[in-house]
Write a structure and sequence with these properties.
Protein name (chains A, B, C, D): L-asparaginase
InterPro entries (chains A, B, C, D): Asp/glu_Ase-like_sf (IPR036152), Asparaginase/glutaminase-like (IPR006034), L-asparaginase_N (IPR027474), L-asparaginase_N_sf (IPR037152)
Strand order of the largest sheet of chain A: 4-1-5-6-7-8
Radius of gyration of chain A: 15 Å
Oligomer: homotetramer
Pfam families (chains A, B, C, D): Asparaginase
GO molecular function, one term (chains A, B, C, D): asparaginase activity
Strand content of chain A: 25-35%
Chain lengths: ~160, ~160, ~160, ~160
Amino acid sequence: MLIQIFTTGGTFDKVYYDALSDFQIGEPMVPALLQEARVQFEYQLESLTKKDSLELTDADRALIQERVSKSAARHILITHGTDTMTTTAAVLQHIKGKVIVLTGAMQPARMRDSDAAFNLGLAVGALQTLPAGVYIAMSGRIFEANQVQKNRAAGYFEPITE
Amino acid sequence: MLIQIFTTGGTFDKVYYDALSDFQIGEPMVPALLQEARVQFEYQLESLTKKDSLELTDADRALIQERVSKSAARHILITHGTDTMTTTAAVLQHIKGKVIVLTGAMQPARMRDSDAAFNLGLAVGALQTLPAGVYIAMSGRIFEANQVQKNRAAGYFEPITE
Amino acid sequence: MLIQIFTTGGTFDKVYYDALSDFQIGEPMVPALLQEARVQFEYQLESLTKKDSLELTDADRALIQERVSKSAARHILITHGTDTMTTTAAVLQHIKGKVIVLTGAMQPARMRDSDAAFNLGLAVGALQTLPAGVYIAMSGRIFEANQVQKNRAAGYFEPITE
Amino acid sequence: MLIQIFTTGGTFDKVYYDALSDFQIGEPMVPALLQEARVQFEYQLESLTKKDSLELTDADRALIQERVSKSAARHILITHGTDTMTTTAAVLQHIKGKVIVLTGAMQPARMRDSDAAFNLGLAVGALQTLPAGVYIAMSGRIFEANQVQKNRAAGYFEPITE
C-alpha cells in the first residue's frame, strides 16, 4: 500500500520563532511522526503550501485538487489547518476512485501535549479501511467530509446537526 | 459510538522505577493519550492485567475473552504487549458481532519517542470503519489478526508469508 | 533554602491557542518543571506579569523591583522574556543582600524541544552558589547581568564585547 | 570556558529495548540535551562506562579518577547513576584545582517526564560558580559531595544528618 501525503500547513506544522516573537508554519512534521510511529508502509510526501487554512486561496485549493487528481495513488492523506478543512474537502468530492482523508491538529506536533501523532494514526487507520470518498479524521472520529463541521468555540469537530 | 477499552499491560504502559532499576507495567496510559488527542467519543476503560504479554496465561486469556464477549459494546479496543498479541487475538476470533482491534507499542507511551499515541489513533480509526472481526493495528497497518505475525528480529508486524 | 520565584511571562510560558491562531503567555510552567525535576527545596512563586518582555513598561519594572526588594528571601529567581532581560536586570542592580538570577527560554517550555527545563536548572544551580548580585543564566552560561547582551540575530546571550 | 564531560551510564542514559523486554544503558543523552538547551560553551564528552552505578567496580572508579585527573580542563561534569554517586565522588576528593560536579537522573532522559535536562542545567550552573572541589547536583540542590546521601526509599538526595 502506497500512501500519497500532501501537506498544506496549519497548526499541525507550526513552529515558534523567538526572533519574531511569533509562530510560523515550519517544515512538515509528518515524516518525524511516521518515524516515531515505526510505520511499515511506503509513502510519498509533497508539501503543497505552508499556510494557516484561513489564508488558503482558491488558487491554493485548485492546486490541492489538481495534485490529488493526478496522483497515481489510491490512498491520499492531507494534513491541513482545521479552520477550513471542510472547505478544501468539498472541492475534492468529485474525485473518483480514491480514498481521501484530511486531518490536522489543534496543537502543533512540536508541542509536548499535542493531538498530532494520534490524529495522524487516526487518519492512516481509516485510510486503509474506508471505501473511496472524502473523509475527515479529527477529534477521535472519522467523518464523511460533507457531514462534519468544526465547532470553533468548543475546539472540536462534530456532525453537522440537522 | 461507545468504545470499550481493555488494557492488558505490555510495553505500552511500562514505567521506569528508579528504586528497582527496572521498568514495570504502570497504570494505563490510554486515558492520558486520549485526553491529549482531544477525542470526542465516549469510552469505558477496564484494566484486565498489567503483564508483559509473554507472561499472559491461559487464565488471563480466558478473562480477556470473557470480558470482551460480555461487553455490551460493539467496538472493542485492546492494548496488549506485542509479543503474543496474535495469540490473544486468536482466542477472540469466535466472538460475533463485534469489531475488535488490538494494538500496542514498541516503545512505552511515557517515552519522548514512542509509537503509542499514533498506534492508539491507528486502532481508533480502524475501529470505526471495519466490519465485525478481529484485527491488529501495528506498524502503521491494519491487519486481519490471523494473517499477521510479529517479526521479532526486525521489530515490526508483517503479513504472514505463505 | 527558600527560593522566591517571580514570573513575568516571555517565551518561557507561551501557549498555543488554536482559537486565536496564536501563541499567548499562559500560566507559569515553572511549577510543572520543578515537579518533573523532583526538586527538594522550598519555594514560593508569584506571577507578576504575563507579557512578552518587549511589552514591559516602566510600571511593570517598578513592580518587579518592588516585589524583589520587599521579599524576605535572599534567593530570587525571575523568569523573563529574553529580549529585555538585561533592562530589567539593570533596575535591580541596587538591591543589596540578595542573589538575583534571571532566566528565560528561546523555545516555550510546552514545546517538545525546549531549553526551558535546562535553563531553570542552570539558574537554580547558580542561585545556590553565587554571592549577592544580579545575574543572567542563559545559553548555558552564568553572566553578571550588566556584562551580557542578547545577540538577537544569532539567538543567544554573549558577553558584551568591549 | 571548556567543560569536560565524562558519562558513566546510570538511569540518565537508559533506553528501552523491546526485543529484550528490558532497558539498557544507551548512548549518552547529554549531547542531545545540550543541543536542546542551545548552550554556547565548548565541551568535550567522553563515555567512560555504560553501567548502572550499582555495577561499577573499583577498576571503573580507578578509570574515572584517572581520566578526571589527567584532563586539562578545570571544569569537569560527570553523569552517573544515582545509587553510588557519592562513592565515586569520594575517590575524586583528592584531585586539586578542579571543579568537579556529578549529576544523574531519577528518570531516563528519554522519558517525557524526566529530571535529566534540569539536572544537567543545575550541574552546569554550579560548575561555573563553585570553587575547586567535588560536588553533587541532584534534587534541585548543590551539595558538597561528602555531605550528601541518597535517600533510597524517598528517592531524593539530602544532607547527611549528624
